[in-house]
DNA sequence: CTGAAAGCGCTTACAG
DNA sequence: CTGAAAGCGCTTACAG
């Protein structure tokens, strides 16, 4: 019976009872082998191992966890907009969790489904919930409170300003201060803001950073900056950047520095400006945000802000893992990640 | 007791027993309300509903499924390389599954971890497994066979040629035939192949398509095409495209049409060619693959092949859902998706 | 070193 | 319309 037909797992065996009968041992013994407990005869272990290969038996996770085993599961909510930075954060986090033998449950939060997702996570008895990206602030605040009441740890990545939330985020305000200082040092005093017309907290924080940097030099945001942002939904960020750049050119008032909400808009704008005969960076400087691969493509390459995603996720892990299975910490914790300015050819001294 | 303090869920309640005691009903009754079974007094239903709000009680999914409820879970394996098309397929599929009240378990397959992932899926008693992208062919074949032996349905998206696998994929061979016909009709007879130096089945299929299209006009692949592909690992596809384009220019033998493995390489190449003083499409035509947003960015915009991802996922759903909970179908099924050529300014008639 | 018994949190016949 | 009992597939004391 236990000879050699290892190729076709007998799919009949569905429970440890059947499996134990197949091996000819008590369920208890089998369970102990499966869990690597000490004090088993090598021969017994060998028998069970071989039977697993023969039958392809996989224990039922639902019974395991019902019986008190940790679920070792973390629920991850990600925002609707699957931009490269969000995907990279998700992938990095999942990898780190898996290295610690945690499974992740991943759900995209869309308008109106966040309660359902959280309930699902709770029913799966996740040991923590992580939010990556930007969400409806009220929903998020409510979920954070509910998780707290259930003593389930949570972590909010990227969305700052949520009451009571443990947060890890790029310091977006500082990011823009750093970028502005870079441009101000080059002598720029007039700035085009491209596609910053969003009420999202992440964008507002960045506008604050811009304002702070200007204020530090005695300048006023409203006087130094201008915008021609579209009001329609953006279909393609590249196109949008080009469109806005053109609007500046046509208006006849072209600032010396263009600051875009992201790299795609920046590159679109750069193309728009170059098509209008302006030279980058001799006539205008252009800067993006996120430091995507695409930054290396235009000529000159695009100056951008790197989110340091690996570092963000590293910190996320350091903050999250110690909380799992522990009594909930009383005070919430906010960690900000230092932005990294990657200066390339698209920004330079203002023409005198 | 059941007055009004709805804000603070009493996190103590962790089981239906405790919950039933709280409401003052039998567990059976509570269970029936939770499952929406008929024949309950409205007042009873009301009582339970209110208690749920008061306590925030969420039933334990592990007990539910152990007791025989369907897990309504699908395992999704995605390839390591999280390119935009892969992410879009994943997101679309998960959305469709959720609309049918299926939960998805998502795991990235990395070299050597696929067995572990499949075991995890099996232990979670998934009702099907979906593979998105390209994987080690032997692993994939083995997993497909194992799932079959366990009567668990599966679906392979994108990876054609797996024995016994239910497959939905873009017809990559045809995609290249269509693109080649487009270029051949324009009079092109010399072709640069950019970054097709991969042994992946998806790339080989595309090379076959190129060969077929040439053969149909009495031309021979080896005589019409040339390559300067790098042997190093690619860090940045844009840079790689530019580098390869430069190699062609420096070699002094510049084909009239450049066909790239993807949009990023194509755009990099286009920039490289333009920087060398060649005009697109007057001097050279350039074509990409995937029809990403970035295609609209260069001047002229990039001709590309659209994978019709929504259609792919739609078919995936139509093929997969009917299999769930059904006896396993004997013959495997292969569906190919028609590619869509999106001709833009980067391709044009060959200079006479 | 191995086995029989209890119990995790649910649902589902089966009685009342 | 509601309740007591059995059982899903495991693990963990507790005996032998």
Which of globular, elongated, flat, extended, rod-shaped describes the shape of chain A?
elongated
Q: Please give the count of helices of chain A.
A: 13
Tell me the Rg of chain A in angstroms: 27 Å
- Share of helical residues of chain A: 40-55%
**Largest protein interface?**
A-B, 55 and 55 residues
Mind sketching the topology for me?
Two copies of one chain form a homodimer.
Chain A: H1 16-23, H2 27-34, H3 42-55, H4 61-66, E1 73-79, H5 84-99, E2 103-109, H6 114-123, E3 128-132, H7 137-149, E4 154-157, E5 167-170, H8 172-185, E6 191-194, H9 201-216, H10 221-224, E7 225-226, H11 237-251, E8 257-260, H12 263-275, E9 285-287, E10 304-306, H13 309-320, E11 334-337, E12 340-342
Helix pairs in contact in A: 1-2, 5-13, 8-9, 11-12
Chain A binds a DNA duplex (16 and 16 nucleotides) through helix 2 and helix 4.
Short description:
Chain A is α/β, with parallel strands linked by helices and 352 residues long. Chain A has 13 helices and twelve strands. In chain A, the strands form three sheets. In chain A, strands 2-1-3-4-5-11 form a six-stranded parallel sheet, sandwiched between helices.
Walk me through what this model shows.
Two copies of one chain form a homodimer. Helix content of chain A is 42%, strand content 14%. Chain A is an alpha/beta fold. Chain A has three domains: 16-66, Orthogonal Bundle (434 Repressor (Amino-terminal Domain)); 73-165, Rossmann fold, CATH 3.40.50; 172-306, Response regulator (Rossmann fold). In chain A, the strands form three sheets. In chain A, strands 2-1-3-4-5-11 form a six-stranded parallel sheet, sandwiched between helices. Chain A has a four-stranded parallel sheet with strand order 7-6-8-9. The first copy, chain A, has a two-stranded antiparallel ribbon with strand order 10-12. In chain A, strand 8, helix 12 and strand 9 (285-287) form a beta-alpha-beta unit. In chain A, helix 1 (16-23) crosses helix 2 (27-34), helix 5 (84-99) packs across helix 13 (309-320) and helix 8 packs parallel to helix 9. The longest helix of chain A is centred in the first third of the chain and has 16 residues, at 84-99. Chain A starts with 15 loop residues before the first helix and ends in a 10-residue tail after the last strand. At the A-B interface, helix 4, helix 5, strand 2, helix 6 and helix 11 of A face helix 4, helix 5, strand 2, helix 6 and helix 11 of B. The first copy, chain A, binds a DNA duplex (16 and 16 nucleotides) through helix 2 and helix 4.
């Amino acid at each position: 019976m236990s000879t050699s037909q290892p190729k076709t797992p007998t799919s009949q065996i569905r429970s440890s009872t059947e499996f134990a009968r197949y091996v000819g041992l008590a369920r208890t013994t089998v369970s102990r082998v499966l869990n690597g407990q000490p004090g088993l005869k090598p021969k017994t272990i060998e028998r069970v191992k071989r039977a697993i290969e023969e039958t392809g038996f996989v224990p039922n996770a639902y019974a395991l966890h019902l019986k008190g085993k940790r679920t070792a599961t973390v629920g991850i909510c990600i925002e609707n907009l699957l931009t490269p930075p969000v995907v990279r954060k998700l992938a990095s986090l999942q990898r780190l969790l898996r290295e610690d033998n945690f499974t992740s449950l991943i759900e995209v939060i869309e308008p109106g489904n966040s309660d359902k997702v959280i309930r699902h996570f709770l029913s799966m008895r996740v040991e923590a919930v992580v939010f990556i990206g930007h969400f409806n602030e009220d929903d998020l605040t409510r979920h954070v409170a509910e998780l707290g009441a259930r003593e389930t740890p949570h972590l909010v990545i990227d969305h700052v300003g949520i009451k009571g939330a443990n947060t890890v985020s790029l310091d977006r305000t500082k990011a823009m201060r750093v970028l502005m200082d870079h441009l101000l040092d080059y002598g720029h005093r007039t700035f085009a803001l491209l596609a910053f017309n969003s009420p999202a907290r992440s964008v507002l924080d960045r506008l604050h950073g811009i304002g702070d940097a200007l204020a530090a030099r005695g300048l006023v945001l409203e006087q130094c900056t201008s915008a021609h942002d579209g009001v329609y939904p953006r279909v393609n960020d590249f196109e949008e950047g080009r469109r806005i750049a053109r609007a500046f050119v046509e208006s006849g008032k072209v600032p010396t520095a263009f600051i875009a909400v992201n790299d795609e808009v920046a590159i679109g704008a750069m193309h728009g400006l170059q098509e209008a005969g302006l030279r980058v960076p001799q006539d205008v400087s252009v800067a993006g945000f996120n430091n995507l691969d695409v930054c290396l493509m235009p000529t000159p390459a695009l100056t951008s802000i790197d989110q340091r995603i690996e570092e963000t996720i590293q910190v996320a892990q350091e903050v999250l893992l110690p909380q799992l299975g522990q009594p909930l910490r009383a005070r919430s914790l906010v960690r900000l990640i230092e932005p990294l300015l990657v200066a390339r050819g698209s920004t330079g001294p203002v023409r005198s």
